[in-house]
Design brief:
Blueprint (H helix, E strand, L loop, with lengths): L5 E6 L7 H11 L3 E6 L9 H8 L17 H8 L2 E7 L1 H8 L6 H8 L3 E6 L3 H4 L2 H12 L3 E2 L3 E4 L5 E5 L3 H12 L9 E6 L4 E2 L5 E2 L6 H12 L3 E6 L11 E4 L3 H11 L5 E4 L6 E3 L7 E3 L4 E3 L1 E3 L3 H8 L5 E8 L3 H11 L4 E6 L11 E2 L2 E3 L4 E3 L3 E2 H14 L1
Parallel strand pairs: 1-2, 1-3, 3-4, 4-5, 8-11, 8-13, 11-12, 13-18, 18-19
Antiparallel strand pairs: 6-7, 9-10, 14-17, 15-16, 19-21, 20-23, 21-22
Helix pairs in contact: 1-2, 1-8, 3-5, 4-7, 9-13
């Protein structure tokens, strides 16, 4: 995912410095070329050898160290970097960079980097909320630095408050958002539905399906990483929604219908990947729910057809994509949906195809438009999400 990308980790003096070893390792596994800069104070919390072992690069600390790989190390590394993450960022280094002070290898290199720079403050709660530190953070933001908010929890001194460095996975997600993919969807609004709706029979039982929500969430993540402003309307999902998207939680098909139709007019691309129940129990207020001593008979009514409603109310220039999971006559049934729902594309798959069913991490999709049909081989749902977006962009 990060093959060919150079990531610079700038580690300053904080107890949270130990987390950065795992960040470096996670980035290497994603294919990134990782370089680490450290302040002298940072070396008191974690040994540079740890980073050198993980990254296979010399950890840079001293501006005047002559054992350089390049003739002017900080300039060469600054040119190579695709992104810089300053984490944990101490109050001292935040103040230096915000006010143009470059007196060590870390601050000198950061100053020379033209790429995107992220800052993750980590310090005592009271220090973080010192007006001087707050002003310096605001100043960095005004210069285009991305600020990663500190977490709240128990701090190193036992106090409870904000000032914790976020978990390693969160830091990596910030990096992926910036550099993992080209921003070919920048400026576009994308709405994605995901998950399985649940239609309540009574306070205990409900009607649902086996959808895990993985495909819809993969699409939402891919669109976000490609620069889109993403809204995810999700019912029950077995995986967490991605970061950096607006999440609208719903329970029933009616709630999903209302949420989607409210958001739809502002969207450029709408992708309905949720598995919505076709039927819902009739309202008990209508006394259609009948119970006997031997069994329970439930009167069912059809839920609203979200995809059809979107096709009927679409605005000019809007792209609509639906999903069609079939057991028989997949292509024929999916082409009928393309016309009857007034969609631009249907992503069809079959429950009979290995690797394309519910709950798995792979999918086997056939993309059907009005002009062509493209069969994709089995791939991960993350890979399939990008192939779907690639196709939708051409429409």
């Amino acid at each position: 995912m990060l093959n060919g990308k150079t990531v610079v980790l700038a580690v300053t003096g904080s107890i949270a410095a130990y987390k950065m070893a795992n960040v470096a390792n996670m980035l290497k596994k994603l294919g990134a070329d990782v370089h680490v800069l450290m302040t002298q104070n940072a070396t008191k919390f974690i040994n540079p050898i740890t980073f050198e072992t993980l990254t296979q690069h010399r950890c840079l600390i001293d501006t005047f160290d002559r054992n350089f790989q390049y003739s002017v190390e900080h300039v060469a590394l600054a040119k190579a970097a695709d992104i810089v993450l300053i984490a944990p960022a101490s109050a001292n280094v935040i103040g230096k960079i915000a006010n143009g002070i470059a007196d060590d290898m870390l601050t000198t290199t950061v100053m020379a980097c033209p790429c995107k720079k992220l800052v993750a403050p980590a310090m005592n709660h009271n220090m973080l909320h010192n007006p001087i530190v707050e002003d310096n953070i605001k100043k960095l933001a005004s210069y285009g630095y991305g600020i990663i908010s500190a977490d709240t929890g128990m701090l190193a001194n036992g106090d409870i408050g904000d000032g914790r460095l976020p978990e390693e996975g969160v830091l990596v997600e910030h990096i992926l958002k910036e550099i993992a993919y080209e921003k070919d969807l920048k400026g576009k609004k994308v709405l994605v539905t995901a998950g399985a709706t649940r239609e309540s029979i009574d306070p205990v039982r409900f009607i649902t399906n086996h959808s895990s929500g993985k495909m819809g969430i993969s699409i939402a993540r891919a669109a976000m990483q490609r620069g889109a402003d993403v809204t995810l309307v999700c019912a029950h999902c077995e995986v967490k929604p991605p970061m950096f998207v607006e999440v609208v939680k719903v329970h029933s098909a009616q709630q999903m219908y209302e949420a989607v139709m409210q958001k739809a007019p502002q969207q450029d691309i709408i992708i309905k990947a949720a598995a919505v129940a076709d039927y819902t129990p009739a309202s008990t207020a209508d006394k259609k729910l009948k119970k006997s001593d031997d069994d329970m008979k439930i009167d069912l009514v059809r839920t609203k057809d979200i995809l059809k409603a979107l096709g009927q109310s679409r605005r000019e220039g809007q792209i609509i994509c639906g999903f069609s999971m079939e057991t028989d006559d997949m292509l024929e049934n999916s082409r009928k949906k393309l016309d009857s729902k007034n969609c631009d594309m249907i992503c069809a798959n079959s429950l009979r195809t290995q690797g394309a069913g519910f709950g798995v991490d792979t999918n086997v999709i056939t993309m059907i438009t009005r002009t062509d049909t493209q069969e994709l081989p089995m791939m991960t749902k993350d890979e399939a999400a990008h192939r779907i977006l690639d196709k939708l962009i051409t429409l």
